[in-house]
């Protein structure tokens, strides 16, 4: 987004808030929402939005826009994978792959999802990189996730244009690519039959860990996104 557009949007936001006289009145700032903020209710700290909208923001990285379903991302992801395969020798792609590899190398030991509760977001973020590495997700597929989300947003006129939305959406996609900890064990049941017990634990896909992961992904992938989006302009329908 250009500085001019940002300024225009901020100005519009500000005039709307002034016109509504709401900022200090303790109401949720999201257009059309009549709920009071947790701060005004005395149930929390947020002065920006009501609990439902804060919760939405935590999960999706946007107050108003929901997460993209897999089927919406899929065609952009395929295009990104094809483009990356055709441009694997480009310096920006080579650098992006190296960037993902260094995240993998720095991620340390794999922590099972069952042990993540209570760890700070930075640790959970490292664990997410370790999970991708140990699931043998090729670095180029990690780059493709960033490009897919960038292209999906670019082709959606109603999408949230804040960088945080893109970061969170891409991080959610990474979470899905390296799923949680799965254990399966068998024991003897009645009559000597074998009974299988399975445990599936997925790390929660919300909150600050998604911002951390998305920011780190952006740092390694943003240079790859520009030429891809430029090429996409002429090929997408
Ligand atoms: Zn609200």
N- to C-terminal separation? 22 Å
Which regions contain 5 or more consecutive residues with pLDDT less than 50?
A: none
Major sheet strand order = 1-2
Q: What gross morphology would you assign?
A: globular
For the sheet with most strands, the description reads:
2 strands, antiparallel
Q: Number of DSSP helices? A: 9
Mean pLDDT: 86
The helicity comes to 55-70%
Number of strands: 2
Which ligands appear in the coordinates?
zinc ion
Percent of residues in β-strands: 5-15%
How many domains make up the coordinates? 2
Question: How would you summarize this macromolecular structure in one to three sentences?
Answer:
By secondary structure, the chain is mainly alpha-helical. The protein contains 9 helices and 2 strands; from the N terminus they run H-H-H-H-H-H-H-H-E-E-H.
Can you offer a commentary on this structure?
The chain is mainly alpha-helical and 237 residues long. The chain folds into two domains: 3-60, no CATH class; 70-235, no CATH class. The protein has helices spanning 3-20, 38-41, 51-60, 70-86, 91-106, 121-134, 139-154, 163-177, 208-235; strands at residues 181-188, 194-201. The two termini are 22 Å apart. Residues 28, 30, 33, 35, 49-50, 52-53 line the site of zinc ion.
Please write out the topology:
Layout: H1 3-20, H2 38-41, H3 51-60, H4 70-86, H5 91-106, H6 121-134, H7 139-154, H8 163-177, E1 181-188, E2 194-201, H9 208-235
Antiparallel strand pairs: 1-2
Helix pairs in contact: 4-7, 5-6, 5-7, 5-9, 6-9, 7-8, 7-9, 8-9
Bound molecules: zinc ion.
The site of zinc ion (ZN) has 8 residues, from helix 3.
């Amino acid at each position: 987004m250009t500085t001019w557009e940002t300024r225009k949007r901020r100005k519009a936001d500000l005039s709307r808030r002034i016109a509504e006289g709401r900022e200090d009145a303790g109401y949720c700032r999201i257009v059309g929402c009549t709920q009071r903020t947790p701060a005004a209710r005395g149930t929390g700290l947020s002065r920006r939005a009501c609990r439902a909208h804060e919760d939405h923001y935590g999960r999706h990285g946007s107050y108003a826009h929901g997460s993209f379903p897999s089927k919406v991302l899929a065609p952009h992801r395929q295009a990104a994978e094809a483009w990356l395969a055709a441009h694997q020798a480009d310096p920006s792609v080579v650098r992006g792959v190296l960037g993902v590899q260094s995240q993998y190398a720095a991620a340390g030991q794999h922590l099972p999802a069952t042990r993540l509760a209570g760890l700070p977001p930075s640790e959970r973020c490292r664990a997410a990189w370790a999970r991708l590495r140990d699931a043998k997700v090729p670095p180029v597929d990690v780059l493709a996730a960033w490009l897919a989300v960038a292209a999906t947003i670019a082709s959606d006129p109603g999408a949230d244009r804040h960088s945080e939305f893109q970061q969170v959406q891409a991080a959610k996609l990474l979470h899905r690519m390296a799923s949680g900890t799965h254990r399966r064990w068998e024991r003897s049941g009645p009559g000597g039959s074998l009974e299988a017990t399975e445990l599936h634990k997925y790390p929660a896909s919300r909150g600050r860990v998604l911002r951390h992961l998305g920011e780190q992904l952006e740092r390694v992938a943003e240079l790859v996104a520009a030429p891809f989006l430029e090429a996409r302009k002429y090929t997408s329908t």
